[in-house]
Amino acid sequence: MALVMVQQFLDPGASHPLFPELSVVETLRAVETDDGHTVPAGSRGTVVAIYGRGQAYKVEFARPTIGNCTVPSPLLRAA
């Protein structure tokens, strides 16, 4: 197990999530909540889950729209 961890640390090609859980992120484009509501570009939310080593994130928004979205990583930036 330790060998795998060291290998991931030393391998620059290893995929690591860009945003850890509970990071505050901002949308670069409008996205849609799981309930079908639109979250406008520039909205800030909190990462609550990470999918595919950071290929997508479950983000919880509180305003201007309340809801959760699964957002691909290219549509997010650190807030």
Explain how this protein is built:
The protein is mostly beta strands. The chain has a single domain (15-78), classed as SH3 type barrels (Roll), CATH 2.30.30. 11% of the residues lie in helices and 39% in strands. The chain has one helix spanning 2-10, and strands at 24-27, 31-32, 38-39, 44-51, 56-61, 67-72, 76-78. The strands form 2 sheets. A 5-stranded antiparallel beta sheet has the order 6-5-4-1-7, with no helix packed on it. A hairpin with a 4-residue loop joins strand 4 and strand 5. The termini are far apart. The relative contact order is 0.26. Mean pLDDT is 87; it is low at 1-10.
List the main descriptive attributes of the protein structure presented here.
5-stranded antiparallel beta sheet; two-stranded antiparallel sheet; single chain; SH3 type barrels; 79 residues; mainly beta
Net shape? globular
The tally of domains stands at: 1
Helix share of residues? Answer: 10-25%
In CATH terms, what is the fold-level topology? SH3 type barrels
Strand content: 35-45%
Largest sheet: 5 strands, antiparallel
Element string (H = helix, E = strand): HEEEEEEE
Describe the protein's topology.
Layout: H1 2-10, E1 24-27, E2 31-32, E3 38-39, E4 44-51, E5 56-61, E6 67-72, E7 76-78
Antiparallel strand pairs: 1-4, 1-7, 2-3, 4-5, 5-6
